[in-house]
Amino acid sequence: MRTLVTGGAGFIGSNFVHLTLDSRPDVEITVLDALTYAGSRASLAGVEDRIELVEGDIADAELVDRLVADHDLVVHFAAESHNDNSLDNPWPFVQTNVVGTFTLLEAVRRHGKRYHHISTDEVYGDLELDDPTRFTEATPYNPSSPYSSTKGASDLLVRAWVRSFGVQATISNCSNNYGPRQHVEKFIPRQITNVIDGVRPKLYGDGLNVRDWIHVDDHNRAVWAIIDRGEIGETYLIGADGEVDNRTVVRDILELMDQGADDYDHVTDRPGHDRRYAIDSTRLRTELGWAPEYPSFREGLAATIEWYRTHEDWWRPMKDATERKYAATQTVVE
Ligand code: NAD
Ligand code: TDX
């Protein structure tokens, strides 16, 4: 199966490429990636000779048309993905997440190709800490940030292209991923690399916000389950029952890295900061037989810390610029 992976040089997309090459000998991969600040050839180290890497923009209609025509399946990971950046400058989020997705959909419509759309639980907005409900496929869209609203817009385009034009698409909305090759702007890698550098972890606001963590390989195995066995036109939520508050994550990282559990700082909160995300993945589990393979968040976290300890060459080039950017807007608060 000839598969076009957009965003395959980013965090989740590159892990998808590695996992697929390890487990699916029937799949040939082309990566389409603009190699923005978030994408790097280094994330595809070791598999360069087994894939084709096309450096280009998903909003380039001519390029996308040519590539889609030549593949059986498109798995669409490419996005502007960081909430903090979307608050600073929303335009690239509209361009890549909305116009880029539109461009891909038009190409798969013209050529009649299978399309899987990667999205996020953030399209559903947030939950109160004491709300007993979790997000399901039926939860109404209610995004908070420029990032999540552009992802929601892209999901709605996919639904409309299925209904109006019969495009052969599926959608997945996943919770927060962690694992190797995640950019150091994101919460977990930022704190691990801070600790390696002797810098105290930075917790936004009161630190009681909850995220529902899943290992990136469990996410990507679910993506394959949906491509293999999912129903066309349907949406599947992906989550591993991994709700943890941010303060606990920081304390776990400090303990696993032999530091005092209270050696962190509170910094300026993110404007509009979503309080809690929580996924009910019953549909994926019962209809498609998926289950997470990582035994626990803490074990996955320990393995992730080990990856950053042994791959400083991968993250060091992006660390200083990332922290300089944060320093411009975040200060330590009591
Ligand atoms: P990332 O920022 O690490 O990677 C994004 C990749 O897309 C990069 O390689 C970048 O170069 C590429 N890209 C950006 N703009 C492009 C463009 N215009 N044309 C071509 N390539 C472009 O993001 P990620 O965390 O790997 O997220 C991947 C997908 O998964 C996104 O769609 C995101 O919304 C979704 N998602 C992420 C999470 C998470 O926790 N990280 C959770 C759920 C869903
Ligand atoms: O330094 C930090 N300190 C901190 O307390 C950073 C970078 C983040 N945080 C908090 C904010 C969030 O409550 O940690 C939590 C996680 O933050 P991010 O890593 O920025 O992720 P989030 O905003 O939850 O969004 C992520 O999950 C859903 C991904 O970035 C999205 O692409 C995905 O859709």
TrEMBL record:
Stretches assigned to the NAD(P)-binding domain: 4-302
Entry's family note: Belongs to the NAD(P)-dependent epimerase/dehydratase family. dTDP-glucose dehydratase subfamily.
Lineage: Bacteria, Bacillati, Actinomycetota, Actinomycetes, Micrococcales
Species per Swiss-Prot/TrEMBL record: Knoellia subterranea KCTC 19937
Recorded superkingdom: Bacteria
EC number: 4.2.1.46
PANTHER family the record matches: DTDP-D-GLUCOSE 4,6-DEHYDRATASE-RELATED
Swiss-Prot/TrEMBL cofactor(s): NAD(+)
Family matches, as CDD domains: dTDP_GD_SDR_e
Main EC class the enzyme belongs to: lyase
Coiled-coil annotated residue ranges, if any: none
Protein name: dTDP-glucose 4,6-dehydratase
Keyword Isomerase: no
Pfam family, one: GDP_Man_Dehyd
InterPro entries found in the cross-reference section: dTDP_Gluc_deHydtase (IPR005888), NAD(P)-bd_dom (IPR016040), NAD(P)-bd_dom_sf (IPR036291)
Catalytic reaction equation(s): dTDP-alpha-D-glucose = dTDP-4-dehydro-6-deoxy-alpha-D-glucose + H2O
